[in-house]
Amino acid sequence: MFLGTINMGERRSSKGSSYPSQLGHFKIVPASAGGFAKEVEKKFAELYGEQPTSFKAEVFSIQKRYQRWSARGLICSSSDGIKGRRRIEKEEGAEFVEVKCSECQERDKCKEQVSLQLIIPELPGVGWWVLRSSQRSFIQSCEYLNSIKMKYKLNTIPVEISLRRTTRGYRLSVIVPLTLKELREWQGTELPDVELPQEVEEGKEEGDIDIEDYLSQSEKELFEK
Q: Is 104 exposed, middle or buried (0-12, 13-18, 19+ CB in 10 A)?
């Protein structure tokens, strides 16, 4: 069950327009409102503080996509870089149609993005939280995590995810806080046997801001080097 997202920014409004704004810390955003959301937010703050820059979780799924966004939302999305779905504007509204990536003249503008599906056992709710990023170093770290998970046939892999400010902008990092011996003996949290959902392509959850969405242009250029 999808429980919500863990974000690094939020959308704000000014003069009738919406724009992404950095937080400099993680924010947990439950998918449902009401008592459950307040309980989750309270517990997350008790564990990691009011403005946490790191938290612990268990990764049970790592998904990668290629996507392109504009101010209006998602333009194109592909899971393999071969076939994808592209947004087409029509009089009655926008819809997504299947396309071949090789035939798209703007395919070089698509950005690789990783999506971690996380379990945080200390929080209320049975399900997973999602954290997304297109930061290159974070994607590479997640690919390594996935290889470890497969090598040792782990249901989940424990991680500590942190966000810190550097001279090159905000940087996400992820580590496995176990020794190799401990990892081999690791018994992670098991969720009920359910089929994993496909990534939602039509848009992000409210406030689900990718870290590079709110970097300055100079910082983005540095990330690309």
A: middle
Token match 């820059």: residue?
53
Q: Tell me what pLDDT residue 19 has.
A: 65
In this structure, what token pair is assigned to residue 161? 């995810």
Residues 57/48, Cβ–Cβ less than 8 Å: no
pLDDT along the chain (225 residues), means of 10: 87 69 87 89 95 94 82 76 80 79 76 89 91 88 91 91 85 90 86 53 40 39 37
Chain centroid, CA 159 distance in Å:
14
Question: Residue 3 burial (CB < 10 Å; 0-12/13-18/19+)?
Answer: buried
The Cα 163–Cα 55 span in angstroms is 9
pTM: 0.76
Which of 18, 19, 42, 21 is CA-nearest to residue 30?
A: 42
d(CA 196, CA 203): 18
Rounded distance between C-alpha atoms, residue 33 and residue 113, angstroms: 27
Phi, psi of 191 (to 5 degrees): -90, 160
